[in-house]
Amino acid sequence: MSDIKLYKSPDTAIPPNTLAWNMYGPGIENIGVEGKPEAFPIPEPDSDQLLVRVDAVGLCFSDVKLIKQGGTHPKLYNRDLKQEPTRLGHEATFTIMKVGEKLRDRYQPGQRFAIQPDIYVGGKSTAYGYTIPGGLTQYHLIGSEIFNTDRGADYLIPVDQQFGYAEAALTEPWACVFGAYTQRRRLEPKSGGTMWILGAPGLGETYQFSRGLEHPQTIVLTDVPSSLLGLIKEKTAGRNVNLVIRDGIGPAAFPALSAEITGGLGFDDIVVLNPRSAEDVSEAAKLITRRGTFNLIGQQPLDGKPLIDVGRIHYDYTAYVGNPGPDIGASYGEARNRADLRAAGTAVFVGAGGPMGQMHVQRAIEMNEAGPDCIIATDVNTERLSALEQTLSPLARKAGKKLITFNPSEETISLCDFVMKQTKNAGADDVIVSVPIGAVMAEAAEFMKPDGMLVLFAGVPNGTFAPLDLSQVYLGNAQYTGTSGSRIEDQQAVVAKTLSGEVSPAQAVAAIGGMNAAVEGVQAMMEGRFPGKIVIFPQMDFPLTPLDQLDRVLPDVARYMNPGPVWTREAETALIEERWQA
């Protein structure tokens, strides 16, 4: 039996070799060698490096794209993995074991950290677990790739000693969940950017522009009222703004205009006055650049639903804002564009049975009075939905929340009709979609209130178009948002909320395994075998085991779990004391 104090001690002996699951090409068969991890000598750190022991790694479904694509994955930049392998495991936590001489004023053995994997160097993504080999190893070095970054600081997040190892690793996926409710869209015209204001021939309305005109450097005007042209000239006088007038062009000419003005990169901001044609709006919306805003000003609904690139809402943070007018500037800013769930409202979680979906539901429950009163969790997987209900219902009752589960594949009523019935035909305040299917995203928007929010948490490829009712953006203040990944600030917030007891990351654990079970864990994750997160403990060897079967494999560990079953720090301590060999 091992001593947990010895495990946490900086004086713990370091073995001569480390096991590692290197990845040598696309396909799960190229992880490790013949289905097993390899042993490598543990190197000494250079003066500007740290030697770290990996304590826990969460497995993430976003790795599936990397497994399928191998070196052609966007974050690997056509790398030859046979010559320069990478390693999965971006949800990692580790302990510093040795410190290079130049870093001894900042770090010391025994310190614990989680890592924020979304690392940028020279404006280029060099993500941990992708470009930088990740945590599916027992020991590895970290150095300049973590420290010399665009952030001007490292991407390590200190973790208090009282943290469990699993919950420390899971602060990263939890940061993605919390990040989905922080404002990531740009809600003001871009400073120094290019704005296109698209009107219509004969448009006679008188518009105002209370904010925003101080930002763009180039303003392109198409069929705008003469009064608005005069206002823009007045407000931009003395700024040397480039005004371009291109009247009388239709949707077929929109791409040529973008090519002429932006070199095909797209407009930073597009304003559409009195929008009436869904087709015109669809074509114009294709021309906003990454983090661009699309501002609709009108009092009449469109003649249909524009086809909108829902992949770009998720990955490119394209923002759709608007208001009835006449003030174009009133669309901008935080006041009209919320990002978080509505207090005392009804929130629907589509794909709630998956690991990330369950985490979204848990967050909504743990928001207490700041969050929704009624939570509808829907999934087509009966087993996952049952696990969610078993695990989170006690939490919901304690918080005074109404948790309703619904499986549309087992009911005669559609999800849309079910939600409308539950809300007395008002619709949901918020709909969060964790299913990467464009048609599902479009359907989810159907049962949203006119001023509701649709959060596209799951990513579909850019170029995936779905019909969205953009009329409600300017008539009802509907929100369409999406986020990809997390920022270090999001992860730091999760660490703080965990310490304060506001969030319980380990609640998401569904299965655990030792180092040799890692690839089986990856396969199980890809198959959706478990309803929550799989956590690998690299320093130990035991089979991949769902928590509801742990009493058969590790009964002396299982007895320390909470009902649910729910992973605890006490269970983790028992696991280390039973399975770790000093």
Short description:
The chain is built from 19 helices and 28 strands. Helix 5 packs across helix 10 (355-366) and helix 10 packs parallel to helix 11 (382-399).
Q: What does it look like?
A:
The chain is an alpha/beta fold. It has 3 domains: 4-180 and 489-579, Medium-chain alcohol dehydrogenases, catalytic domain (Quinone Oxidoreductase, Chain A, domain 1, Alpha-Beta Complex); 194-331, Rossmann fold; 346-482, Rossmann fold (3-Layer(aba) Sandwich), CATH 3.40.50. The protein is built from 19 helices and 28 strands. The strands form 7 sheets. Strands 4, 6, 7, 10, 11, 26, 27 and 28 form an 8-stranded mixed sheet that branches. It has a 6-stranded parallel sheet with strand order 14-13-12-15-16-18. α5 (171-179) packs across α10 (355-366), α5 (171-179) crosses α15 and α10 packs parallel to α11 (382-399). The protein is globular and about 80 Å long. The protein starts with a helix and ends with a helix.
